[in-house]
């Protein structure tokens, strides 16, 4: 056993995750690897692998357990912490724990500017809308549109949410303008056009 056992467990986890896409096995191997890892790098890689596997499997308890471990681990890069906050935010949102989801999505926005960050910005506005905080929802939609210029899908979703905000405020003129902007600018995306 010892050193080689942990290394082969970790390799088995990598193969299960990346090549055979057997996320159940990957999760099992990563979890086991974490318990016997001898250095901080191996420990972190096992935690992060377990987190990604759990997310693929929608195993909420594991996502929360390993998400918390990753964000607290000093070996995690800014991007890796950002991904962990994203997985946590998505999970808490699904559980309707909106206040916790909000905190996690805001961390993603702070730490990165990738597709997960663009989605997180949108999710923040959706949470405000669900909480009937229309002013914050509208301001967040504008923030999403300013910060997510490389992610047209999330801008379109944000504009559609803005139209919902305007409808809730009985401002039908601006609601229509937001929807028309989406229809004119997102002809290629069938899903978005359908939503509009």
Question: Can you tell me about this structure?
Answer:
The protein is an all-alpha fold and 196 residues long. 81% of the residues lie in helices and 0% in strands. It has 11 helices and no strands. Helix 1 (3-18) runs antiparallel to helix 2 (23-36) and helix 3 packs antiparallel against helix 4 (60-72). The termini are far apart. The mean pLDDT is 94.
Number of strands: 0
Low-confidence stretches: none
Q: How many helical elements?
A: 11
DSSP helix fraction: over 70%
Straight-line distance between termini: 58 Å
Radius of gyration: 20 Å
Secondary-structure element order, N to C: HHHHHHHHHHH
Question: Quick check: average pLDDT?
Answer: 94
**Could you say which overall geometry the principal axes of the C-alpha atoms support?**
elongated
Tell me what portion of residues adopts beta-strand conformation.
Answer: under 5%
User: Quick one: biggest sheet?
Assistant: none
**SS-derived structural category:** mainly alpha
Short description:
The chain has 196 residues and is mostly helical. The protein contains eleven helices and no strands. Helix 7 packs parallel to helix 9 (152-168).
Describe the secondary structure blueprint for this structure.
Blueprint: H1 3-18, H2 23-36, H3 40-57, H4 60-72, H5 78-94, H6 98-111, H7 115-130, H8 134-147, H9 152-168, H10 172-185, H11 190-195
Helix pairs in contact: 1-2, 1-3, 2-3, 3-4, 4-5, 5-6, 5-7, 6-7, 7-8, 7-9, 8-9, 9-10
